[in-house]
Amino acid sequence: MRKAKLIFVPIPGIGHLAPILEFAKWLFDRYDQFSLHHPIIVHNFSVFLGDTPSLDLFSKSSEKVFFFFSDFVESHKSHVRDAIINHVLPDSTSNSVPLVGLVLDFFCTAMIDVGKELCIPLYLFFTSTAAFLSLMLYLPSRHDQIGHEFEESDPESIIPGYAGPVPTRALPSFLFNKHVGYLSLLNYGRRFKEVEVLLNTLEELESHALKSLMEYSISTPPIYPLGPLIGKGQKILFHTHKAQNDEIMKWLDHQPPSSVVFLCFGSLGSFDEPQLIEIASGLERSGFRLLWSVRKDTGKRQSQSTKEIHQY
């Protein structure tokens, strides 16, 4: 049987690198028509084949991270193009190992230009939620009508994928900064429509958001929910244990359907004690059952932080 080759271009942040590599492993473990080709990873202002680095961005604000990655990846398109030409295309043109796709992290949308130049089918591996993808796809339409970033005085937004109007104060702070986060995410949202999206979620978890995405507009790209993809090594990284996991699942099984709110603020989502107290107070007043993944703020790198899970 002839093998087919996929190229993965992740960004070297643990919250993006781990899921896309887990997807690659899942794919190649289950479908023997694919051959494993080491991912191309942008790292330390060079391009490597098959490396698994991490990039220290935790001294930067979340707003600057978007700007940094946009500029960084854009400046490395020629390196990725050369790596594909020199290391991948020779096998593909010989008809022995056909190249069937370029799978990009959403921070790597600048590499869409490389795929188009080399006539490679393009896929986006989106590590976040369907709801956040809805927001990203909404930004270009909103900007075409309004022409500027969000402002604190803006009314609530009707965003496809969200069950109700979204208060302006609930939007991420980088959407209010024209010259850093907002313009970067606006550009990402435009480029998403040029690819097919592999979404790290599942229909049972985000049925409303996925249905809204499918019905939103003919300009919405093809979307394939295939998650959630969670590496087996995560229990070590986040200091969770089988007994704790079993306790959580047992508790969830005894709750009424659609009655639990799950909170997880991602790999950079640590809070100091006053913030945690304020969030906990609001959650308590809401009256909802909840499962909360809490990351302790140790003042160190994320990989040295600990993560605890609580159910109420």
Name a few traits of the molecule.
single chain; 312 residues; alpha/beta; Rossmann fold; six-stranded parallel beta sheet; four-stranded mixed beta sheet; 11 helices; UDP-glucosyltransferase activity; transmembrane; UDP-glycosyltransf_plant; UDP-glycosyltransferase 71K1-like; membrane
List the helices and strands and how they pair.
Elements: E1 4-9, H1 14-30, E2 34-35, E3 40-43, E4 46-49, H2 62-74, H3 77-87, H4 89-93, E5 99-105, H5 112-117, E6 122-126, H6 130-146, H7 178-192, E7 196-199, H8 207-216, E8 223-225, H9 234-237, H10 242-253, E9 260-264, E10 270-271, H11 273-286, E11 289-296, E12 307-311
Parallel strand pairs: 1-2, 1-5, 5-6, 6-7, 7-8, 9-11, 10-11
Antiparallel strand pairs: 3-4, 11-12
Helix pairs in contact: 2-7, 6-7
Percent of residues in beta strands?
Answer: 15-25%
Name the assembly state: single chain
Residue runs with pLDDT of under 50 for 5 or more positions:
43-60, 233-238, 300-307
Structural domain tally: 2
